[in-house]
Design a protein that fits this description.
The structure is a homodimer. The first copy, chain A, has about 475 residues and is α/β, with parallel strands linked by helices. Helix content of chain A is about 50%, strand content about 10%. Chain A is built from 21 helices and 10 strands. Chain A has helices at about 5-20, 35-45, 60-65, 70-75, 90-100, 105-125, 140-150, 160-165, 170-185, 200-215, 235-240, 250-275, 290-300, 315-320, 325-330, 350-355, 360-380, 390-405, 415-420, 425-435, 450-470; strands spanning about 25-30, 55, 85, 125-135, 190-195, 280-285, 305-310, 335-340, 380-390, 445-450. A 5-stranded parallel sheet of chain A has the order 2-3-1-4-5, sandwiched between helices. In chain A, helix 5 packs across helix 9. The longest helix of chain A is centred in the middle third of the chain and has 24 residues, at about 250-275. The termini of chain A are far apart. At the A-B interface, helix 1, helix 2, strand 2, helix 13 and strand 7 of A face helix 1, helix 2, strand 2, helix 13 and strand 7 of B.
Amino acid sequence: MNSDTLRYRLLDAQLALAREQQRSVILLLTGHAVTHKGQVVNRLNHWLENRHTEVHALGPSSEEQARPYWWRYWRRIPDRGRIGIFIHGWYGDALFARAERRLSPGAFQDRLEQIRTFEAELAAEGVILLKLWTDIGRREQRRHLDELQQDPARAWQVGPGEWQRHGQHAVIEAIGRTLRADTEASHAPWQRLAFRAPGEQLNRVGRALLGRMEAPPEPPAVTLETLSDEAPGVPSLHRDDAAVEKRLDKAAYRERLAHGQARLASNAREIARRRIPVVIAFEGHDAAGKGGSIHRLTAALDARQYRVYRIGAPSDEELSRPWGWRFWRRLPVDGRIAIFDRSWYGRVLVERVEGLAGEAQWQRAYGEIRHFEQQLLEHGGVVIKLFLAIRKEEQLKRFEARAATPHKRHKLTDEDWRNRERWDDYQRAIDEMFARTHLPGAQWSLIACDDKRRARLAVLELVNQRLEARLASAI
Amino acid sequence: MNSDTLRYRLLDAQLALAREQQRSVILLLTGHAVTHKGQVVNRLNHWLENRHTEVHALGPSSEEQARPYWWRYWRRIPDRGRIGIFIHGWYGDALFARAERRLSPGAFQDRLEQIRTFEAELAAEGVILLKLWTDIGRREQRRHLDELQQDPARAWQVGPGEWQRHGQHAVIEAIGRTLRADTEASHAPWQRLAFRAPGEQLNRVGRALLGRMEAPPEPPAVTLETLSDEAPGVPSLHRDDAAVEKRLDKAAYRERLAHGQARLASNAREIARRRIPVVIAFEGHDAAGKGGSIHRLTAALDARQYRVYRIGAPSDEELSRPWGWRFWRRLPVDGRIAIFDRSWYGRVLVERVEGLAGEAQWQRAYGEIRHFEQQLLEHGGVVIKLFLAIRKEEQLKRFEARAATPHKRHKLTDEDWRNRERWDDYQRAIDEMFARTHLPGAQWSLIACDDKRRARLAVLELVNQRLEARLASAI
């Protein structure tokens, strides 16, 4: 294929992508220094219709550094129909951090595991991935560096970074081998490119990209680990459903509430001072009292420190990106608290039960959720997950009370009645959710809410305990 | 009205706002230090349904500092149905910068002018604005500061900043007077609040907010300055239409293109080094050659430095915010180049002619656009606006050629033919756009495009000239 033909076919493939708005493309180039990566990307970008292309090659901003590592890449995922080109990207971070020993061997392995998960998630959501490694021999790199440095028009391309990477050629070569071997996947394949002049290299990159874009989609396999029903500490509606206690009287409630809120205010100040991010996810039966419990929490918080997100239907900008994007974009900056009134668990609850997500999608979501929460924990965050449960009879009583009270009528919708009809399906989905996402550090807490007062105090107590446990840790 | 009634009415008003999704609310509190602003906002936020509320009180991040000043507030405008509460916000910036003499008297006046424009734009787009100034006498402030400092539970609230502002009480008082007088407007009124205990203050803030939310909308008056047809240098299709030159031969074109691109590459590197942001807006007749001209520019640029935005229909997230938001969000960070393939001028061209924007909206857009571009200039940016014009006969020839060429057919849509039917309406709208938005520093350049080669060279030449002029300036 000559280069004009190649160019037209690439352009056709890109226009089809933009027209259909079903998939997006990520092309990532990494590898040795001074291998014409920048030049090739420039020319490739010129070949393509650049209204549907974006190039990313920056280091992290302070806003990015103040959030979990993967936030910086989630925010850059191209929307459907577009091509995102990354120079180094997440591979450069891992490669150079390991070469410079800023990542221990163990941390490097963990990072590779995260990369596998990240790419599998993207691929499952229709992102076409292609990863290119640019090779160059040590002696050839040296010759090329000398050449560049002697050419006044191009000498600016060589800085201390390039020389440093030349000095580390053998190390980069070795790390690159591991990195490629450990992240090779049919949904995110590697291709190596021997060193060539930019024009020739461009043709090879173009052919590789065209090949990927024309290949049939191959979504990654989802492996669901088997469940042990008896995992210690996993809550279950089946077991706990009957936990109804005597109603708490008002005076005792008020006193304990004031005490818990004062404790929360002080914990939250310390959280801010130590710049620890906190994520609190509320799930629960309709009318279980999520709103009221959230209110009792926020009453104790400085309004500048927290934000409540109500998760409803996604916007079109959210729909045009992989599923996780809408939660990643709402992660709090360090020291702040994000409270989710319904959350990413909607995927395995309402979306599963109502058939809004296909089985493959919600099955895969368990792993995606574990990965997401793991990222928050590794960044030093606190992840609190609460399920507010009521019995079926209690829910009916509350629905009827809402319907009868003008001030509360807005809270009751047809959807609430519909959900109630599928009560048993929901119970099953909830129990499976507990079993599959009860992670160390991100455990589920099941709150019995038939008595509102006890429930609110229990939520407050739980949040306090979790914050205090985090504050007591040395990190 | 007792405080329970007030609370319920506020909640009702908020729920109506959230349900109707037509308008949003901005409540801003500023004024003297230690006047319970934080506490009042906390309690107010607790009164409201906090899933529809957001509180903003942070200093600018590095991403914000690397963009024009107002970017940090545009990104925080609440979407329709929500309430945004700002502590100090843009008034705090102006007030304290002036008190500490970081803003000269002239710069302070300019800032107040910007504030008036900003608020008028928001109000015109349905944002309900209310601004509260918290008063306190100097002696009372001193007493309150001493009290706080002696209370171990609250002493943390007093830092050097509070004492500094106490020392500047008279200055803040005087600046506050000017600031309020100069930014008072019926669509963005001020209310002063004498110092009171937090509970009482909360009631007064709540009443003020309720009053504003229940008041009938009062959009600001639009004043269109009269046009001088003969303003020097303003382009006009009417006059320049006939400017057809002899076609340029291919060899001469290639040589001049290579020369212009080399010059652009070097200018762009210097722009990056000096961290100057550049915005290039392309408008023009259908089939005038915008895409081709953009390609000839980007061929000379490093792909990491620029991004091309094609402006089509807005997303739903964009529709739920004031009109300008979708352009503010795309402003480049310092040192980068944003190329707009169609731009904010769509408001006074296609949206005007096709009736997608009402007359009041597009009339007001001239001023909004001037304000927007002015912000870019004041931040040190370069604003280049190009109109690519062809004659009506030439357009027909190109449409027919596109229809006949398989590779180009995707470029021709029914819309193109429809627009052509309204040729004269467009010509009028274009000439009025030139006349009303030909700003010093952000002039329009009209490029005759009947000969594609000459047109591409002219675009390149113009961009080079504008960049060189900016690089030659001392700032």
